[in-house]
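Supplementary Note 2. Why include the ligand at all?

Several targets in our set were suspected to adopt different conformations when bound, so apo predictions alone were not considered sufficient. For every target with a known small-molecule partner we therefore ran a joint prediction. The input for C2E is given below.
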Amino acid sequence: GVFLTFLLSALLSTFTSKTLSQRNTLLFMLEKALDKNELIPFIQPIIEAESGNTVGGEVLMRWKHPQRGHIPPDQFIPLAEQNGLITRITQSGLRHVADALNSAGIIPARDMTLFFNVSAADFINHDLLEECREFRRKTPLSGWQIGLEITEREPVEDTHVAQALCKRLDALGVQISIDDFGTGNSNYRYLMQFRPHYIKIDKVFTSGIETDASKEAIVRNIIAIAQDMRCMTIAEGVETASQKEKLAEMGATHFQGFFFSKPVEIATFFQNTRNPLP
Ligand code: C2E
Ligand code: CA
Ligand code: CA
Ligand code: CA
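The joint prediction is reproduced in token form.
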């Protein structure tokens, strides 16, 4: 029996070993990259519809491997989420950005919110609260606010720990944003669970909004529920002037997308938000 099981599992592993070892190599590389601080946060500006001002940005991780070149987040983020590494990525983003703000000593022209992507694993203990407190300590009274983008990719369970964490984050002034809204399966639950300040209108709805009647209907409904719940709406993936105009007319409060700017290096983002010297 034991021998047969061994034989079977050996057979099985030869079939699956190629993809498995590829994944393991990437995972191993990712761990090393984290140790060596090779993951670099970029920032994509978020624009207020009414004023046209940049009022914040989304922090997006970039990984440039010395040999393999650029590895996209769509490859390493899900891998990190499945293997217990995502909390280290969240932590490294918050620390990296806070240190950069701190050492550059930049005070923004107006209040700015920097949004960090967080995952389900960030809600199983209170480490995230400590990291946000640390961010605050490094950037006192500077006008930089913290936002957290919560995705539905892996659902955040509505546990007591998660509830207590949200309360404390709220008390700290951390803004909550629901990412990928309407593309997962727990979106209305998320609105009750998190009482968000922002709802993001996903790129799947933004692209084609000018011509696709069903997308227009969905976005109208997202904006209506956001207004009823006193939430702001960030339309992401805005690539053209006509998309921007359509979304503004429909009542979206914020924009993000290549039409305004790609994600840029932190220094570049700061340069564009710097308070002009008196
Ligand atoms: P997301 O949170 O939905 O982020 C938006 C993605 O759309 C980003 O891709 C951004 O570069 C891209 N994008 C922005 N504007 C446009 C546009 O006008 N057109 C098009 N075609 N794309 C646009 P990116 O940077 O490749 O990130 C992919 C995903 O990886 C993110 O999707 C997010 O879920 C995840 N991610 C990235 N960084 C982090 C991180 O530090 N932590 C976590 N947990 N997830 C991250
Ligand atoms: Ca996001
Ligand atoms: Ca998004
Ligand atoms: Ca998305």
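The pocket of calcium ion (ligand 4) is lined by residues 180, 202-203 (CB under 6 Å). Residues 132 and 218 are 34 Å apart (CA to CA). Comparable summaries for the other entries are listed in the accompanying table.
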